[in-house]
Amino acid sequence: MKILANNCIAKDTYEMILDAQEIKKIKAGQFMHLKSGREDLILRRPISIASYNEKELNLVYKVIGEGTKTMARFKPGEEVDALGPLGNGFDLLDVEEVLIVGGGMGVAPLYPLGKELTQKKIEVTFVLGFKTAEMAYYIEKFQALGEVIVTTDDGSLGIFGNVGTVVDELGTFDAIYACGPWPLLYGLQVKFDGHPHLYVSLEERMACGIGACYACDTKDKKHRICTEGPVFNIKEVEL
Ligand code: FES
């Protein structure tokens, strides 16, 4: 796919915009599987789709290893070997009040979800957690959709602490959608124990991305995250 832009949007965080004119259908919560561009790095990297329209696809990724470091050097006009959109994505429920909780890189796939829910006139509260202010991204985009509560681990932006501190103070919602590190998801599972509509998008290392290698099994070994996920009702999986 042709790269239209590849910019640093926060500390170690990049947004790559791809020409998406050939992609027919995209669903919030799906991901793209990208080759880094370095011949010796064979495995693709699963990257969240952070927004899309009929022309462009925005991906947000964190530079953490050699592969993503190489990806960060892509220039507009170059091509990236991309597979996708992959995975099942979020199902939109016909409800009134929704809570969306994201942490770190897990914030990115929740933006298109929030956009689609608010377009359906569903009231959405966003709780977004980052390590520090310099690692925060997309805050203004979320604020254009609804109420946004930001937390940072060091208190440099928003509320000091993690998202759990905030979520514990909130009431209940018709549905909860979340993506982020394991402690965040586990905290939600405890807080909303037995809730019928708590959906989590799981982050996992992948190899094939298309259900063939079983490298991305859930902890209970019952599901492949790349194909049956990454979004699950929390009742279906063991965290
Ligand atoms: Fe191969 Fe999921 S990455 S089955």
From TrEMBL:
GO molecular function: 2 iron, 2 sulfur cluster binding; flavin adenine dinucleotide binding; metal ion binding; oxidoreductase activity
Amino-acid positions noted as binding FAD in the UniProt annotation, renumbered to this chain: R45, P46, I47, S48, G67, T68
Residues given in the record as [2Fe-2S] cluster binding sites: C208, C213, C216, C226
GO BP terms, alphabetized: pyrimidine nucleotide biosynthetic process
Keyword Flavoprotein assigned: yes
A Pfam short name: DHODB_Fe-S_bind
InterPro entries: Cyt_c3_hydrogenase_gsu, Dihydroorotate_DH_ele_sf, Dihydroorotate_DH_Fe-S-bd, FAD-bd_FR_type, FNR_nucleotide-bd, PyrK_electron_transfer, Riboflavin_synthase-like_b-brl
Cofactor binding notes: Binds 1 [2Fe-2S] cluster per subunit.
Keywords: 2Fe-2S, Electron transport, FAD, Flavoprotein, Iron, Iron-sulfur, Metal-binding, Transport
Domain called FAD-binding FR-type: residue spans: 1-92
Key word Electron transport present: yes
Cofactor list: [2Fe-2S] cluster; FAD
PANTHER family in the record: DIHYDROOROTATE DEHYDROGENASE B (NAD(+)), ELECTRON TRANSFER SUBUNIT, DIHYDROOROTATE DEHYDROGENASE B (NAD(+)), ELECTRON TRANSFER SUBUNIT-RELATED
Family named by the database record: Belongs to the PyrK family.
This protein's name: Dihydroorotate dehydrogenase electron transfer subunit
Organism for this UniProt entry: Candidatus Atopostipes pullistercoris
